[in-house]
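Structure ticket #2291
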Amino acid sequence: MIEFLNSPCVIAPLKATSKKQALQELARQAAELTGEHERAIFDVLLERERLGTTGVGRGIAIPHGKLPGLDRVYGIFARLERPIDFDAIDDQPVDLIFLLLAPENAGADHLKALARVSRLLRDERLCEKLRGCESPDAMLALVSDREAVNAA
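Resolution: structure written out below.
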């Protein structure tokens, strides 16, 4: 299982009508989880988006960033109530978002977490199942099961 993801870190459905609103809501949730300031998290996410979209295609976005006050990698997974424009590389709307936040000096840990999430969300069948889940607990169970299979 992705060790930085647990039940309070799964949001379904996330209500947002724009990329900015989705990032603001994720920053708010991340602030509660990490104890960091919501604005600092939002600013890090916006700065990363300015470098290039984190909308990786097929309805998926993986916004991420580093913050100096964090002690470990944090993840929040959200399924949007309705797909939104996220400036994705394939111009398709996004409905699955996996936010990753890492300590400023995380280096390899940040990259490993990004690679694991990317690998997980490349599984089209898993993504379709996630889109059909009714509850955050069901989504978490699906991700945990997929991780267990990949680890075996």
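Closing remark: The mean pLDDT is 90.
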